[in-house]
Amino acid sequence: MISHPKPMCRLRRRRTRALVPLPLLLLLALLHGGAVIAAEKPDSSRFPSRVNIRLMRTLERQLSEIERALVDDAKFSKERVRNVTMPLQNFIDDVVLASGRYTDIYPQAIYDVLVEEFATAKPRVEIADLLVEYQRHGQFKARAEAKDSKVPQKGRAGV
Description:
The protein is mainly α. It has a domain at 44-150. 55% of the residues lie in helices and 4% in strands. It has eight helices and two strands; from the N terminus they run ααβαααβααα. It has a two-stranded antiparallel sheet with strand order 1-2. Helix 3 crosses helix 6 and helix 5 (86-96) runs parallel beside helix 7. The longest helix has 17 residues, at 56-72. The N and C termini lie far apart (82 Å).
């Protein structure tokens, strides 16, 4: 009786990414428009200008980061800031996400509006209602687009 050798197991090859050393990355960034990359996201922008929301947890995370930044960076009291974005979150969840559609939010515009409104000492309830109205009427989008149009874009001549 002839015994057959055991079939060889196929070893899965791990796909490894080639790691590029940091100094080389920095050199490439400088050679290929590092100044343009820096101009696209100014230092005043802590958040992305637009985020596509498909899941409730993404929305919750973005809005909680905004509230945390108001306390940490803008130095507003935690009690005053707590849950100020909750009505906005409920509006987006009830009106948009519940119907199966996706939406965009504009975290940097939301943050900017909150800083401006908290600086005027308006009550938190008024500020929360204002956020819902801005989202409903597309004013966050308009603010984000206006701000983006002021920042030089990669590939635009004469800017």
